[in-house]
Design a protein that fits this description.
- Helices cover 88% and strands 0% of the residues.
- The protein is mainly α and 151 residues long.
- It has a domain of 99 residues.
- Helix 1 packs antiparallel against helix 2.
- It is rod-shaped and about 130 Å long.
- The model has no long low-confidence stretch (mean pLDDT 92).
């Protein structure tokens, strides 16, 4: 009998490869998001420091130029923060899509693996039937030979 050959092995191998690629993409995307979140935290720290630095000290003279500079700086920081937040949200959407693709690929791989196991079990049952058939034929021929020599 021919050795076991799963006809969909190429598809299974492809799904395994796709799964590995998507896992790598998922990790890279998570690192991108972590980097962006770090940058956002740094921007927010700068904003907190700017607030602390602009607070007037008791007895200090109100500096209009410094206040105007602060306002421009604050607007730039707020704009930067807003851009960073939207970029993080966009990257999280991408992460969710990758995660969904990975789940789908894993599901398809598991289906193919179960199908392979079923085909392998069928093949092994067929092998056992063939072996049993040969053993039955040997036993029958031995019985007939013994009957002919005794009779």
């Amino acid at each position: 009998m021919k050795p076991f050959r799963f006809k969909l092995q190429a598809a299974l191998s492809l799904k395994l490869r796709q799964e590995d690629i998507l896992k790598g993409d998922l990790q890279r995307q998570q690192k991108v998001i972590e980097g962006l979140e770090y940058e956002l935290r740094e921007t927010q720290k700068k904003m907190a420091e700017a607030i602390e630095n602009i607070r007037p000290t008791p007895g200090a003279v109100f500096d209009v130029e410094a206040r105007l500079f602060f306002n421009q700086f604050w607007l730039k920081l707020k704009s930067l923060e807003s851009c960073q937040i939207s970029e993080i949200e966009s990257e999280r959407d991408t992460l969710a899509k990758i995660r969904q693709q990975l789940m789908e690929t894993m599901r398809e791989r598991k289906i193919l693996e179960k199908l392979r196991e079923k085909h392998l079990a069928d093949y092994q049952r067929e092998i056992l039937r063939e072996e049993q058939k040969v053993l039955d034929e040997l036993a029958l021929s031995r019985y007939i030979r013994n009957e002919n020599t005794q009779g």
